[in-house]
Amino acid sequence: MKRYLTGGAAVLALAAGFGAPAFAQDAETRIAELERRIADLEARPANTAGGPNLSFGLGETQIEIYGFARFETFYDFDFAQGDLTRPTRIGELGIDGEVAGFDTDGEFETSVRVSRLGFRSTTPTQIGEVGTQLEFDLFSGSDTTTSPQLRLRHANVTIGDQWLFGQFWTNFMPLVHYPTTADFNGPVGITFARVPQIRYTWNSGNGLVLSGSIEEAAGGSSDPVLTAAAFYGTDKWSVRAAGLVGRVDSGGEEFDTNGITLSGSISPWDGGTFSATYVTGEAIGNLLIGGGAQIVDGQTNDATGFTLEYRQALSDTLSVGIAYGREDYDLAFFPDVLPGDFTSTIDVQELETIHVNAFWNPTDRLTIAGEYIHGERTTSDGSTFDADRIGASITFSF
Hints:
single chain, about 400 residues, mainly beta, Porin, 16-stranded antiparallel β-barrel, 3 helices, 20 strands
């Protein structure tokens, strides 16, 4: 892995030196795309836009239309992962020419499925400002289709700065410290889920934000999960801690699920930011990017993940970064990732990814991005498979 980190650093240095085709949004733009920034995001998680881009009034209600169109292209050198990084496909070989695998001598892929459309509204009422949010992307259906279908991302109602009812990012997820990548998934080792929920948020006004939620379990469960989180931030650094408890159903039995997430960032000099996230828990694999099994052979599968990132703004329009992620599972699992009903003969014990990218904004609304991604998959017997891919995208926001 040191060899790949060194190689990634070299690519990062080249991107910094030449500002060539690996471009992407700067950190601030990326976090805005992931639903607002730091304390403001935590305090008002559904409708906290700054100045609306496309807005109009209907009586006392203000309506904002937002989103972006994005074209992406990828090239896989070893294993075809589709239109976003899927490390569980790494090492999936065809069998005797009868079962299709993902191994390839090189595969080119394009996608528009990340493109997004959203609507927000705010209305003053006697109980405070009531907001709504509806947001969609094109991730329904196959990743190879040229006619993708709408998929609901967010649908919620907010009352004031405190209450949120509906589908939004899980409160367990460290959204404000999510690594910046051009790839839609980003590195493994971090939680990523949107779920229906009831959330209450309290903002001290001095950097401290507390929140708690009752959420629909992201995996199979007849019971809700409970979460709580605390965030504190300044202009230079921020930290966040979150916890989750609940139950999961599997094979007619119920099992406990629980976990903690710790994350933080620091900006020691102008334009530079270090960030890290850590998550560990019991039966939480379904919340992680790698999508690990919650239950294996009637036992809860403990999982641990972490990410590390460094980003540097080189100018007002160009930034570069490198992010590393890892997931470890106590019990190896066998994902069904091949076409058809075939179950993989290659198990998953560990996953690792490295993303090296650059982001260029020639205008306020146009972003050109490029990225090199290396992924590794380790099985329970210690066998390791790896893959490399490169990608580029162009995005126009409105």
